[in-house]
Specification:
This protein is mainly beta and 182 residues long. The chain has one domain. It contains 1 helix and 9 strands; from the N terminus they run H-E-E-E-E-E-E-E-E-E. The chain has an 8-stranded antiparallel barrel. A hairpin with a 2-residue loop joins strand 8 and strand 9. It is elongated and about 65 Å long.
């Protein structure tokens, strides 16, 4: 098989997988793996998981958040985990599909009452969304305490929509923010 035929088969196979349709039966992956590090050239990524700094638009100067609200979200995605699988299609041709499956990084936000959150966050790709969670410490007004947060992240025009349910110093806070890669 020449290189051009292999490229055409790869593009067609990825299109079939991504669309959720299957033109012909394929065998199970023959060599799935997961590694931590940089994505190989040509790997598929989901914007909700790509490495870099994602943040919400900064709050305008002079705006104070009320207790029970948060803003200024910032998620610095640093360590992607890459997974790949090799597929055999009818005719004996094989291709390897590599994509980012999870990430870790740091997370911060500002909440009403002068509270600042900082900690770590992780996310795992699940279909077209990422399930994410984070935890860390709260500083600012009052005694230092902790926070935990969980939610989903999905691509939306212009960025990634992050929905969350958080417990900050015992107070439950829910909402969503549009994060953009900065």
């Amino acid at each position: 098989m020449n290189n051009r035929t292999g490229t055409v088969l790869f593009v067609l196979a990825v299109g079939v997988l991504v669309s959720g349709c299957q033109a012909a039966p394929a065998t199970s992956p023959t060599s799935p793996s997961a590694t931590t590090g940089a994505l190989p050239t040509g790997a598929l990524t989901m914007g909700a998981l790509s490495a870099g700094t994602w943040s919400a638009d900064a709050l305008p100067s002079g705006v104070n958040l009320t207790p029970g609200t948060c803003g200024n979200f910032k998620w610095s995605v640093t360590s992607p985990t890459v997974g790949s699988a090799t597929f055999t299609i009818p005719g004996g041709a094989t291709f390897t599909m590599t994509m980012q499956v999870s990430v870790t990084g740091t997370f911060s936000a500002t909440c009403g009452g002068g509270q600042s959150l900082s900690g770590t966050a992780t996310a795992s790709l699940s279909g077209t969304t990422a399930n994410w969670s984070g935890a860390g410490n709260v500083t600012g007004a009052g005694e230092p305490c902790s926070f935990s947060v969980a939610g989903t992240a999905a691509q939306e025009a212009g960025g990634v929509r992050v929905t969350y349910n958080a417990t900050v110093c015992g107070t439950v806070i829910t909402g969503s923010e549009l994060l953009k890669k900065r």
